[in-house]
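Proteins fold reproducibly. Take a tokenised chain:

. . .
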Amino acid sequence: MITLYDFGNSVCCQKVRITLRAKGLEWQAIRVDLFKSEQYDANYLKLNPKGVVPTLVHDGKPVIESTLICEYLDETFPDPPLIPKDPWQRTRMRLWSKMVDDALFEGVTEISFSAMFRERMRNMTEAQRQTRFRNIGDPRRRDRFKSTYEHGVRSPFVLHAIAAYERGWKFLDETLAETGGPWVLGAQPTLADINLMPFAARLDYLGLLDAWTGARPRVQAWWANAQTWPHFKTGLSDLISEHEYSEMRTHGPKIRGDVDELIAGLRDGSIMAA
């Protein structure tokens, strides 16, 4: 039996759900409401001491970290394969897992926060805001959120996020030119594609993706192909509520001008980011 502790619009949960769909697996979903801090419930922390989603429980054994969950599913349920058998190709696939985990995840969190959740926190009382900040277990993550709350898109953490996506989409464009597409590693989808899909989707739904991809037709073609993949639709796009779509469509465009300006500065060298 497979149980997934899940939150609908979490990019990490979306990676796992797409993988489950691609494998043709059924699972029991248990919602963990991040906005109600249910991820810090004592019983949930026994499964996932980090207090994050998703957590997969298979035959009574918990597996945490979305990248590891996806690899676990591929190894446990090998058909159809989503990890290349060739060792060199497998390392190329894992480069994308590493890029997502090292840079794009934090990046989409900061961009989403500056566009949507910052405004939501502005409508809280000061006591509610401080409670939210105290509930963030990782001090570095708390510092990032506080900076983004105070400065919005002009936070250095948001600039680092925008720079990470500039590097990521540039690398994807170069990779697709090398492999010929339509998927990251060539003819067949792999976890490299699945790992990227939720991050492209979030930026797209915020109305921001083409700020990076507008001059990169190969990346645009990859994204168009990904959106028609049935497992993307049933694992991600079909499961986002109309309220969530509306919130992203409403708030994302409010920061578009600043995002465009920062990308332009990164490209012409007038802005430097680590």
Notes: The chain has a mean pLDDT of 93. Residues 87-268 form a domain with the Glutathione S-transferase Yfyf (Class Pi); Chain A, domain 2 fold (CATH 1.20.1050.10).
